[in-house]
Amino acid sequence: MKPIIHTILFSSATVFITFCLIKFPDQTLEASIRGLNLWWEVVFPSLLPFFIISELLIAFGVVKFIGRLFEPVMRPLFNVPGVGSFGMIMGMVSGYPTGAKIAARLREEKQLTQVEAERLVSFTNNSSPLFIFGAISAGFFHDAKLGILLATSHYLGNAMVGICMRFHGRQYETTYKKHARRFSVKQAFWEMHEARIKANRPVGEILGDAVINSIKTLVMIGGFIVLFSVIIKLLFLVGVSSMISSIFAFIFSIISLPESFALPFISGLFEITIGANMISQITSSPLLQQAIFVSFILGFNGFSVQAQVASILAKTDIRFLPYFISRLLHGTIASILTIILFQPLYLNKQTFELKDIPVYQPIDVEWMGLMEKLQDIGPIITLLALMVAIIILLRRNVKNGGVK
């Protein structure tokens, strides 16, 4: 009975979206272009270097080296092997879905068990500092100091989620080692060397695979960005967003929150950038309330990012449900931390800087300048990377054809 229900739901949703596409062609095209521009200018060029580097570090055994060094820290705190530290660091620096990408690769390399990979995915999908400081704080709120509050709540909240998720799946573990290995640089080096020798592939092949795999993942991510940009627009046009927002408006009124946050909150649950931008435009509400909602949708990741993560995890045996639960937990914890830290990290800092540095705010200029530069050179990087991928694939096809 359950498969039949799923068939009806999926087919009905597809027919509904198809009908909406036919009815609203102009709005659909506009939403598609907006999503494509976001991917073309920002997402692809900002994530490509991190994806390629992560592939190379795994192939050359450097992740084994890092994992061996951080084993005494990662195992007691998060109940994952030391290699999880690589996913944690890269996810924090480059943003989602890098954490899921690395966790899936480590699982494919048999460096993580299924349960360990599920724990790692739950707390390594962060927003990047560039997105928090550049896009949200400086771009939407025109106040980069707010980024300190949002970033602290976001990253500290994710670490707390990792500590909570360390207990996930312990009843299924049979190979868990009660003792953490000691810190040893020498042993870490030899494990790195063994991992590189075991790979047994030419450097050129490793570089080519890193580029191709990274670009394939980024193209998939771009498809999801465009798709959800269109879906959000269609839901707004047919009135579904208004119906859902009215339910949330009633809930917000009960807990003494402004009803005006309902529609931006719903939009943020689907796509973070759109939701955060809409929340920043509600100037009638206190900044603390705006920061609370932004912190929640940053932690929740949005259905668009979750769909990207689900697609990456689908190629492995890593289950999606633990990740989804951790996103709800992260959003809640980050919101609570925003309330607690608002006074010391924002109000006190504002008071101090207004007294001592009332005019110049260089951090705003730096982050905005970085975002503008990325948008200027981003399309060029994207185009060049796609051309390189095509050349690599063509050369491999010619080589394989010659062998035959």
Give the tags.
Gate_dom, 81% helix, single chain, mainly alpha, globular, 404 residues
Shape: globular
Indicate the mean pLDDT. Answer: 83
**Topology, number of strands:** 0
- Uncertain residue segments: 354-363
> What Rg, in angstroms, do the CA atoms define?
23 Å
Measured as a percent range, the helix fraction is: over 70%
Structural class by sheet pairing and helices: mainly alpha
* Number of helical segments with 4 or more residues: 17
Q: How much beta, percentage-wise?
A: under 5%
**N-to-C CA distance:** 49 Å
Question: Main β-sheet: number of strands, strand sense, barrel status?
Answer: none
Keywords: Membrane, Transmembrane, Transmembrane helix
Pfam family, one: Gate
Domain Nucleoside transporter/FeoB GTPase Gate: 42-134
Protein name: Sporulation integral membrane protein YlbJ
Task: Explain this structure.
The structure is a single chain. Helix content is 81%, strand content 0%. It is mostly helical and 404 residues long. The chain has one domain (20-403). The longest helix has 42 residues, at 362-403. The protein is globular. It starts with a helix and ends with a helix.
